[in-house]
Structures are given as C-alpha cells and as structure tokens.
Amino acid sequence: MEQFYQVLAWVSVFFYWLVIAGVTMRVVFKRRVVGVSLAWLMIIYIIPIGGVFAYLLVGELNLGRKRAERAKEMFQPFADWFQRLNDCPGHQPQQMSHQARPISDLCENRLGLPALCGNSMSLQDTPHEILRSIIEDIRNAEDSIHLEFYIWHPGGLADEVASALIIAAKRGVSVKLLLDAAGSNRFFRSYWPGLMAQAGIEIVEALAVSPLRMFLRRLDLRQHRKIVVIDNKIAYTGSMNLVDPEHFKTDAGVGQWIDVMVRLTGPCVSVLNCIQAWDWEVETGKRFLPELPTEEVSTATEKHEIIQVIPSGPGMPDELIHQVLLLSIYQAKESVVITTPYFVPSENLLHALESAAERGVRVDIVIPDKNDSVMVEWASRSFFTELLSAGVKIHRFHGGLLHTKSVVIDNNHCLIGTVNLDMRSLWLNFEVTLAVDNPEFTQQLSWLQQEYIANSTHISLSEWEKRPVYKKLGEQFFYMFSPLL
C-alpha cells in the first residue's frame, strides 16, 4: 500500500508538471506583451493550482465560440457599410488637419472606417444636464431609440429615463436596450426590465455571466461602451453610465462620480448607430444596419468639424484605440492633458508619455484622489516616480471620483469616449472613442480639464519620494500585476 501511495504521489507530481509546462508554453506562444506574459507566469508559479485555474478562466481573450463565429461572419458586411461612407457628403479628407489625417489613415487602413465632417457637438459636463438632455430627446423621438451602457443603476433621474423610454415605446417608437450583464446586474434584478418588456422594449443582456460557461468564455470581458442614438439623427457617447450619481455608490467613500457626455448630430451619428448594431448582432444574431448619412456638408462653415469614430474590442482590429492614443501623443508639440479614473499604462503608453515630457511637451495627468478600486489605485501609484522624474505633472482631483476619459493634444485636437487608461480598456473590453478635429470643441474640453486641475493637488517628486516604505512595497507588489488590471 505504501508503494501505491508513492507511485500515486509521483504520478500526481508528473501530471501537475505537465499541466504547468503546457500552460507555460501556451502563455509564451500567445506572443503578447512581455509584461503580460511575465505577470501570468508569476501567478501560475506562485499560486500552484489557483494560478492555472485563473489563467484558464481569464487568461485569454475568449469571446465564446458562438459570438466569435458570429463576429467573424459579420465583419465583411459591416466593413462594406464602413466602405460606403467614403461616398457620403461628409467624407472630405482634404479638410483634415495635419493631426487628424494620420489617425484617419490608421482607422481606414485597419478598419475601413473614415473620419467624417459636418458634425455638430456639444459638451455636457453635469449629470443633471446630461440626463435631462437625454430625456428630452427621448420624448421627441419619432422612429427609434437605441441605448447601450455598461451600467444602468436604478434611482433618481435614471428612473425618469426609464419612464420616458416606456412612454416612447407605447406611442410606437422602436426601443432597443443593450446592457452589460455584470455592470447592470442591479438593473436586471429590479422591476424595470419587466415594465419595459410589457411596453414592447427589446432588452438584451450583453455577455451574460454564467458559472456553467466559465471555461467557454472569458468572464471578465465586458461591454463598456456608452451609446445613445435617437432616430439616427442624435447621438450621445462619453464616460457616463446611465446612473444618477446622487443614487449610485453613495457609500463607497469616493464622492460622486464626475462625468461628461458628448451630444452630437451629423454623419457620425450613423456610425455610432452602426457600432451599436454590431454589438446587438454579436449578442442576438439579428442585423439592423442603419441608413448611411446623406446630409450635404458646407466646406466653408464645417471645415474643422471632423470626427473619427474609433471602436475597439473582440472581433475588431486589436489595439486600435491604443494605437490612436500613442499616435496622438507622439504628434504632440506643446501639451498633452489626460483625465482618467484608472491609470495603469501599458509599457508603450508609459514610454510615450515620458518621451513627450522629455522633449519639452507639457504633460498633465489628472486622476481622482480617491478610487473605488484598491488594486488599481496601488498599481497606478507604482508609475508615479518614473513619470515625475521624466517631467510629467500628476494631479489628484478632490471633487469626487473623476470618471471623465479625455485627452487634449496641443489645445486643438482631442480624444473623448469610454476608454480608461488601463490594460483592461485598451486591450480587452468593448470600447469607443471619438477623435475630434475641432478647435472650438477641443477648447471647451480643455477649459473643463483646467477646472479639474484647479480642484486638484499637484504631486511633486520631492514630496512623493518621502512616502513611507510600506507604501513603496505595496506599490511594487501591485505593479507586478499591473499588466492584468
């Protein structure tokens, strides 16, 4: 019997070695960023069984067989739709500035999606203004309303949006609502889905979380886009979820969430509607490609109102938003101002920011003083010393959880959308960003960023280096996992 247990022990050790060797080879052969691979190998070796289990759950970008096949089949029809935008009146590449042209070329070459001019934009920066504006446009809707959010949290003005949608549906407006299953978990447990379904609203849970399918699809892959499209004429996108901050995470100890949304009309509304249609088809298999924009554009008055819509996520070209962000920073000549709630940069992004500061570009990064993610907070701090030493200025915002995701380059070009500057947003989730070539809009966003900076504490290198040793150790510990956050 003793020999049997010895043999069993040796067989178990050998089997475990085979598992470790197999997973290690799989990590290496995926040829991802070196930091990501090293982080996973460290987890696999330090946590004997749990590390392998964790990698099988969330280590690879697995959309699930059905969704992956559907996305593959969809790509060509949607690419054809994007291609037809080149014949629309709003496609006038000769009007682009020198900052916008490389971004447009990148997006056209990788996705076939061109920049379009003739858009009208307004920046909305308070929850009351944003939600009231959405409610008013819903009340005036005549044909269709398409909404897509990561989080819908019942309460306050969010309930007024729900009521407005129900009323619109009852008067014959087609309403489609796509919500991330994990982010909107509380909404799906409320009475609102039932009321909406009774009114004829189509509601779909994106990326439903099911323990029974945990090995068939990556569980932490999330639908993070925020899009509202009304009658294919008005659209909203930006950082704000469908929540009233006075009723959302009030006990988290970080203050109210600070967000912005862009309300826009013009050719790019159809593009955002097409992205929402993409996500709808990935989940349901049902296709509804919107009509192409047909409005005539005056080159004399709309010269600079050019927007490049940039989607990213599984099924679309890898790292497209990440590439646009890097390209924008490397083009900067005078200033780069970034606001983001979660700052865990990739190696390439870190080097781009440092290089910009070292060549004389003023680089400002504004992040919240208090964060709702402890791991991200500690991992973020691990980059401060390197950035401050290169001349980057870091500001910690005190007015709440700064959730605005924005980048302003040289005060004449900007990026605004749903993307956090962390690996999850840049590499994993479904996201959307607008690259705006409009000096007037960019100036408005720049003024808002300066308001954030005025309500922030600037971190100096000398003071930062005086922090306690235990904090430095904590930062280095979470730094090792930063490629996975």
UniProtKB/TrEMBL annotation:
Q: Which Gene3D superfamilies match?
A: Endonuclease Chain A
Give the UniProt subcellular location, in the record's own words.
Cell membrane
Keyword presence, GTP-binding: no
Query: Could you tell me the Gene Ontology terms of the biological process aspect for this record?
Result: cardiolipin biosynthetic process
Q: Which InterPro entries does the UniProt record give?
A: Cardiolipin_synthase (IPR022924), CL_synthase_A (IPR030840), PLD-like_dom (IPR025202), PLipase_D/transphosphatidylase (IPR001736)
What does the record say about its membrane topology? Multi-pass membrane protein
Q: Where is the active site?
A: 224, 226, 231, 403, 405, 410
The UniProt keyword set, sorted, is: Cell membrane, Lipid biosynthesis, Lipid metabolism, Membrane, Phospholipid biosynthesis, Phospholipid metabolism, Repeat, Transferase, Transmembrane, Transmembrane helix
EC class (word): transferase
* SMART domains assigned to the protein according to its UniProt record, in alphabetical order: PLDc
PROSITE patterns named among the record's database cross-references: PLD (PS50035)
Pfam families from the xrefs? PLDc_2
Q: What is its EC number?
A: 2.7.8.-
Instruction: State the reactions this protein catalyses.
Output: 2 a 1,2-diacyl-sn-glycero-3-phospho-(1'-sn-glycerol) = a cardiolipin + glycerol
**SUPFAM superfamilies according to UniProt:** Phospholipase D/nuclease
Note the NCBIfam families from the entry. Answer: bac_cardiolipin
Question: What is the role of the protein in this entry?
Answer: Catalyzes the reversible phosphatidyl group transfer from one phosphatidylglycerol molecule to another to form cardiolipin (CL) (diphosphatidylglycerol) and glycerol.
User: What protein name applies here?
Assistant: Cardiolipin synthase A
Q: Which organism is it from?
A: Photobacterium marinum
